[in-house]
Amino acid sequence: MRPTLHQLRARLVRWSGTDVLGLLLVLLLLGGGFLTLLEEVREQETQSFDEQVLRALRRADEPAEPLGPRWLAEAARDVTALGSLTVLTLVVVAVCGFLVFVRRWRTIALVLGSTLGGTGVNALLKNLVARPRPSVVPHLTSVLSESFPSGHAMLSAIVYLTLGAILSELVEKRWLKLYLLTVALGLTLLIGLTRVYLGVHYPTDVVGGWIAGLAWALVAALVARVARSRSPGLREEARGDTAPP
């Protein structure tokens, strides 16, 4: 027997409510983890561990030389550039251009709100903590701001995970959704790891950036879900009803 329209609506409300509660629980865990890490960093409880990791990635007789083949450092610089503000801005602009073509105006607002808001939060956290950059090993790429949390790690998590979630809504097959989210997560992890390898961030800077970025991306997802439940326009965009013929 087919479910009635009323039953389908009731299921949708129940599933949405469960999802929202799950997101809120994850956000609480991420927030608690970030605050705990922040306190440890400010009290320099992690400093010894951080410095040991950075030294372990360099030759003992020549700290300016990273472990591994010569091409690895250049590859790390290429990958780390994917998390730079310039590249992330280009990615966001390109995706927003695509959304303009398919007339997803409200989705554009969600993307811009998430990315611009995350950039502001990252700058605020850096200024509040004001942790100096690592000095135990030479930097293998240039840096301009404070160390905690890593802007590359945080902003790449925000941008790539948010965009991965949005793009996954454009496909129906579950394995395609999983692929998009896996690529987004893989890019975020690689970018963060290169920051440590290049000696411009402590491991805890990167972990802090990952936690904050994931939390912000989940906040954006929560806002989008609530907005979609209240906005017929957003529901139409999610179904692709606004796309041109």
Automatic annotation (TrEMBL):
Regions crossing the membrane:
20-38, 79-101, 108-130, 150-171, 178-198, 210-227
* Start and end residues of each Phosphatidic acid phosphatase type 2/haloperoxidase domain: 107-221
Q: Which InterPro entries match?
A: PAP2/HPO (IPR000326), PAP2/HPO_sf (IPR036938)
Question: Is Transmembrane helix among this UniProt entry's keywords?
Answer: yes
Q: Which SMART domains match?
A: acidPPc (SM00014)
State the superkingdom.
Bacteria
Among its keywords, does the record have Membrane? yes
UniProt keywords, alphabetically? Membrane, Transmembrane, Transmembrane helix
The protein's matches in PANTHER family, at most eight in alphabetical order, are given as: AT30094P, SPHINGOSINE-1-PHOSPHATE PHOSPHOHYDROLASE
- Which protein are we looking at? Phosphoesterase
Organism, per UniProt? Cystobacter ferrugineus
